[in-house]
Amino acid sequence: MQLFGMPAEKGRWLLIPLGATVLLCLGTVYSWSIFRKPLEKLLNINATESLLPFTILLIMFAILMPITGFYINRFGTRIITAVGGAVMGLGYILSGLNGNFQILTFTYGVIAGVGVGIVYGVPLAVVAKWFPDKKGIAVGLSVIGFGLSPLITAPLAKSLIDSYGVRQTFVILGIAFTAIILAIATVLKTPPPDWKPADWNPGLSAQGNTSFTNSATILLQTPAFYGLWLCYAIGSFSGLAAIGISSPLAQEIIKLDATTAASTVSLFAIFNAFGRLFFGWFTDRFSPKMGAIFSFTLLLAASLMMMSARQGAIATYLVAFSLFYFSFGGWLAIAPTTTLILFSSADYAKNYGIVFTAYGAGALGGTLLAGRIRDIFGSYKVFFYPTTALAILGIVLAVFMLKRSFSPSTISQAN
Hints:
Elements: E1 2-3, E2 6-7, H1 8-11, H2 15-26, H3 32-43, H4 47-69, H5 72-75, H6 77-95, H7 101-130, H8 135-164, H9 166-185, H10 204-212, H11 216-219, H12 223-254, H13 258-285, H14 288-307, H15 314-342, H16 348-355, H17 357-377, H18 384-401, H19 408-414
Antiparallel strand pairs: 1-2
Helix pairs in contact: 2-7, 2-8, 2-9, 3-4, 3-8, 3-12, 4-7, 4-16, 4-17, 6-7, 6-9, 7-8, 8-9, 8-13, 8-15, 10-19, 12-13, 12-15, 12-17, 12-18, 13-14, 13-15, 14-15, 14-18, 15-16
């Protein structure tokens, strides 16, 4: 079989950078903190309001992603990618029109969020099917684009905002992202149902695992699903809030200037991206439980550090937020890899779509709480008390719930 004019064994590796590029465009949402201060000044809004478009986008993302998983086989990866890319680009372009805070929340949060939700799962589903023999590393390499995005898009957005203003920046980014995603959509495709890598023969345990979870109904009957969902929600709660507040927090608490604060967001993107790669490998090599425990331990350390942060504590801020981004990036690899390990790879798009609703729940809770804490207490520092408690809870949940919990009789009933 040929792929990109070469044997599929080699050609499939090109799908990873292509998928990562699509996700890099979508991951511009992680540069939202760069937009917040200019929007607060332009629209005369507070911290909670400037986080709302970001929050709504993440919620729409989390809602649409699982729905899309049920339609990938019906409409095909190319059509879904193209439609989603066009919708996301339209949301960005419309966000550049003159309008108030409510219009921005709809155009960026709802429209762009729908587009991101439609596209996001497609590259992961494509890669998962082409790499049944290297699930963790392949998924980790693909999602690295989403996490690495601020390394490129944060300084790009800052430069565009300084040169053209925040509204025109939305338009420029929307046009560019649409063109890139539409181009890549033409080559994204899944392998034939009977395709598998040469010399790869899954063991009996893997075959049994596939038989066990062949429907969403079975997925929802397993304690492991609820353990994974809760852990993913906790990781998203802390990580997405940290992403949303990193630049303004650096300016308000550490007293960095806006340009330096934007540069730190680019630095943190490296840790976000590397976290996906590292935890994809770590979860494959050890276990989902160990990956979750390690991630929450880093989250706990970062939270404790930020409780004592003060003006001029640049090193504390850099280390703590690097850990926040690294830990959160890890969950974008731990969750899909765990879904592949514990449940059916054949139903991956549907199963991970359901698991991914935890991302939306975490986004809603974390970003809204962070904004309210800033408006009520006048500082983001209080936010790190709940993240400390949740990190401890996450470790407990991972120890007792993040494991296979089915029996041969359950497998028989599933079949």
